[in-house]
Each structure stands twice: as structure tokens, then as C-alpha cells.
Task: structure prediction
Amino acid sequence: MRITIVGTGYVGLVAAVCLAKQGHQVTAVDREPVIRGLRAGVLGIWEPGLEELFADGRASGNLRWETDVVRASLDAEALMLAVGTPTRPDGHTDLSQLHEVLAKFMHHGDCPPLIIVKSTVPVGTCDELEVSLRETGLRTEIVSNPEFLRQGSAIQDFMYPDRIVVGCQSPYAEAELRHLYARIDAPVQVCDRRSAELIKYAANTFLATKISFANMMSDLCEGYGADIRQVMAGVGSDRRIGPHFLQAGVGYGGSCFSKDLQSLLTSGKLVGLSLPMLEATAHINEQRIPRFIAKLISCWGNLQGKRLAVLGISFKPNTNDVRDAPFLTLLKQCQLHGIAVQAYDPVVQHVPYDGVHVADSAYTASVGADAIMILTEWPQFVSLDWARMAQGMRQPIMLDGRNLLPNKAVERFLEHDAAVYIPVGRSVVSCWGD
Ligand code: UDX
Result:
């Protein structure tokens, strides 16, 4: 199929390289500086397997680049929209990038027969876009086809999804989408467009709710000396619940969960609904970092000249994305309390904020620190020499915000005098054995 994809962020770029790999003729469109970067081989995002597929696409000729969306779509059978839809400060979703693209086709007076909306858009958006197109005489059909890929495993998720959701109006659109995804072995759920749009929000906010539920239970575990890992293992092994997204920690981050939750709350308000469960999910998440800071303050007594070493800057492992990362909330809170931050991340080497020094290794970050906090569960943190980490510190206190460290690593850390290990949803362990 000949397809034009607008937007080369996580969703657009991953869709472009994967569809090219599957034999489609893909033209990816973005703004001039981004396309210049792509032409020079600069991808802008870091994702396992992406570079290889990108190189494949270029070599096969299935992947091309353009800055002019109309020119790129002259003989395209479908136009896929994967532009950003950020949440505005008033809670409404900013659809200006989508409108901008469609305005170009309306002005041109022609458009590919099918528009596939991959961007996450509030329920009813596809209907509204189609009305605007009709008003200018364009007969294009709009399909809602939300994407569920996760950063860090984006290629895998795109190629092997749990399902493909297609919200469409006609057998023609359904047949085209089935053709587009013919090489992907996954059930295709065909439904109306509004339901398809809502599935994406419902899925993301449900996952966020599972995480907040686990975090709430972890506080209760701490209050009663239970172990959240055991509790959630027991809960998650019930097949009606499932084991995923029940890991307690510093709270969810990333560009999707908070944004989609706020957007859904706004959609609720627009039809007079308050969605209290989602309010609670957001509230629990907002309280995570302040709760860890309170633990630190109670360990330290006073905050005078305190230094915190932070391991992990990206919002999750295997990505360099810092958007809405718990790290940013932590940094703000530390600045508020006058705590200096020295951070290390295997991929993120620069943070565009004051008040943080990014170290070149975990060991350097820990030197002179009054506590270490693990924020992201990068697997390489497990194999650090934890006795060496403790030795360099001013006070060997560790907050394991992801329950990452196995007993062996904790034992090594606790070899040091006065060392304290503070996990999530479990009892605190010190070198004195209490
Ligand atoms: C999410 C959705 O999973 C994906 O389907 C959608 O398309 C985009 O949003 P992503 O934001 O890439 O994907 O990451 P995800 O793996 O879902 O993690 C989100 C956040 O939740 C991370 O900060 C992660 O650390 C946190 N998390 C996840 C937990 O705190 N506990 C868990 O058990 C799982």
C-alpha cells in the first residue's frame, strides 16, 4: 500500500519503519529540521531495534521523507496522522497539529481517500474532522486506529500487538485497514469510531489505575509490615486481574498516562461527569514523590546541605524520554527543600533544568551523597558494586523507589556502617538488622 505518515515521533516513526519493513511504500512527513535530521540518519528518539529497521527501510527504498504533506500524498492510498495531541493547561486536548495538516488538503482541494487517525484524540474528534472535510467538498473517510505501543518496546509492540482497533464507517475502510495490517498476526476489533477513540483512553487510564492501586496498597503494606511484592503476586495470579502493571514504586510517568487521564477527565466534564476513580488515580500518583521526600526528611532530621544521588532520569528503562518523568517532580521538590541533586542515567546525559548535576557514572553520582534514590529500574543498576556505592557516600541511605535490588545487592550495601535500605511497600532494613 502507498501510505503517507505525518509526524515522526514515537508512534509515527515506529509505524513508518515497521510498515516499510512489511513491504508498504511509506513516505514520512515532518517539519524541515526533523526531516533534515532523518535524512542525515539522526532519529531523535532512542528505541531498541529502531536504527536497524530505519536502515532497512532506506536500503529497500520503501521508506522516504518529505516536508510537504500534500506533495507526499499525491498518489497515496491512505494518510496516517501521528502528530502530537498535547493537553493544554486548561485540560483540553490541543488538536491544532491535526487541524493544520487537514487545512492543507482542504486548501489543495484533494486528499487521499482514507485518513487514519493514529494520534490519541478525544472521543468525537474523527466525526468533527470528517464534518470539516465534507464542508469543503472532500469525500475522504476518516478511520480511528489508536496505537498501544509502549516506549522501550515500541517495535515489538507494533509488530506483535494484543489487538488492532479499527473504528470505521464502511466495509471499504475496514478492508483497507485489514490490508495494511495483513502481515501482523493479531485480532482486529472493528467498531464505531467513537468507541475506538475511547478504547485508547480507557486502556491507558485503566493501566494507570492499576498502578495507583498498587501504590496505595504499598502504603498500607508499610503501615502493617506486609510485603507489597507478595501481596501483588498473590493478587495478580488471579487470571481475572492479571500480573501486569501492579508494580508499586515512584508512580507512573511518561507522555501518555497523565495526559490521557487529564484529557478523559475533561471529556467527562464536557458531558457533566466527574469520573471520581480517575481523580483518585491522579491524586495517588501526585502523592508518590512527596511521600518519598517525607521519608528522606524523617531520616535526615534537618536538610542543611543535603545531597541526593538519583539513579535513573528517564521515565522508564530503555528510553531516553524524560517527559513527565518522576525525576522532574523529584527535582522540583528537591529544589523547594534546598536538596542538591546529582543524577546518573545510562542513556540521558543532559537535563535542561537547573539544580541538577548529571554524573558520568552511578559511582560518581553517589560520591558524597546523603542518600541514593533509585527512580528508574534500569537493569544495569542491579549489578553495580553496592558496597562501593555505600563507601563513597556521606550517609549510606538508599531509597529503592522501584523495589529493584535483589537481596544480594542489598546485603552488600548493608555491609557499610549505619547503612539503611528503604524499599517500597516493605519494611525498612538497616545494617543493625532492624
Ligand atoms: C503507555 C501504554 O502502556 C501504551 O499502551 C500507550 O500506547 C502509551 O502509554 P508508555 O508510557 O510507553 O506506554 O509506558 P508504560 O510501560 O505503560 O509505563 C508507564 C509508566 O508506568 C512508567 O513510568 C512505568 O515505570 C510505570 N509503571 C508501569 C509502574 O509504575 N508500575 C507498573 O507496574 C508498570
In short: The chain has a mean pLDDT of 96. Residues 193-224 form the longest helix (32 residues). DSSP finds 17 helices and 15 strands in the chain. Residues 188 and 213 are 30 Å apart (CA to CA).
